[in-house]
Design brief:
mainly alpha, ABC transporter involved in vitamin B12 uptake, BtuC
């Protein structure tokens, strides 16, 4: 039982990190109706900016400077790319995010370099043992994993409440339903997009810091967005709670399948489990667990 709980906790911790990246995707989709392919590149750019700035200044100042950089990046994207595409077809917006992806990756490589950098946040690496009195030997939990989970979980909860319960959240849902109708009742579309992209940039910063400290800051971090895609498919592209629940389900499913099914059918299940589950949902319930059903009447 102790080993099972250890695997379960590890899966939940990983799932929270998936949810954090997926939340950025959901927010952009709710505002513009398009999948933001650039979210992974934003995660990479944030991590690169922080780790290179830490070479010249203390961590708090580097973190503050990186926040400013991500805010400026979000403003530039909204001002120069998205604003001219207001009321354009969704495919135009998607192709714009695709172009933003390659631009950010190339710009980041020019500015910060393309080496692999170690991001040290000063978090203890020694694992801690919990519930020793309940289970023999206790349950092993990584200190850095626990820190990452607490920070990510707190941010996910704050953003979920903010976009579900506030006036901006209601305006966001109105914009997602119909851009022109939202504008006709006085909702400033450009301001909403700027707010959402700013929040997505801050989410990318937190995700980049956490994943960069775990895996090292390298260009493969941009692929995290692809790992978050099954999460939003599972939870629903328009659902903030769905991004949270979907991330937890996939995180736990990956760990459980790797540990218990891996010895039977071979390793590497973590690499394809999420995509297989997403494919099944696309066949059975394409709107996801919490997504809105779209019914076209002809």
């Amino acid at each position: 039982m102790g080993f099972f709980l250890e695997v379960l906790i590890g899966g939940l911790m990983t799932g929270v990190l998936y949810s954090l990246v997926a939340l950025g995707l959901v927010l952009i989709f709710k505002a513009s109706g398009v999948f933001n392919f650039a979210q992974g590149a934003m995660v990479l750019f944030a991590a690169l900016s922080l780790v290179r700035l830490m070479e010249k200044m203390p961590l708090p100042l580097a973190l503050l400077a990186t926040c400013v950089i991500m805010l400026m990046l979000a403003y530039a994207i909204e001002r120069l790319v998205l604003r001219p595409l207001v009321n354009q077809p969704g495919i135009s917006l998607f192709m714009a995010t695709l172009g933003i992806t390659f631009f950010i990756e190339g710009f980041g490589q020019i500015i910060w370099g393309s080496d692999i950098y170690k991001l040290d946040l000063g978090i203890p690496k020694q694992p801690i043992i919990i519930l020793e009195k309940v289970f023999s030997g206790g349950i092993l939990v990584g200190s850095d994993d626990l820190f990452a989970t607490v920070v990510s979980g707190a941010l996910v909860i704050v953003l979920a409440i903010f976009f579900q319960k506030t006036r901006i959240g209601r305006a966001l849902r109105a914009v997602a339903d119909d851009h022109q109708a939202a504008q006709s009742i006085g909702i400033p579309l450009n301001q909403i997009w700027l707010i959402v992209w700013t929040v997505a940039g801050l989410v990318a910063l937190v995700a980049g810091v956490i994943w960069g400290s775990r895996l090292g800051v390298q260009f493969s971090l941009s692929l995290i967005a692809l790992k978050a895609l099954p999460v939003v498919i599972l939870g629903g592209f328009t659902s903030v709670p769905g991004a949270i629940i979907g991330g937890l389900i996939i995180g736990v499913g990956e760990k459980m399948s790797e540990v218990y099914l891996g010895p039977l059918i071979g390793g590497g299940i973590e690499n394809w489990f999420a995509y297989t589950l997403a494919l099944l949902f696309l066949l059975i319930r394409p709107e996801g667990l919490f997504g809105e059903k779209i019914i076209d009447r002809v």
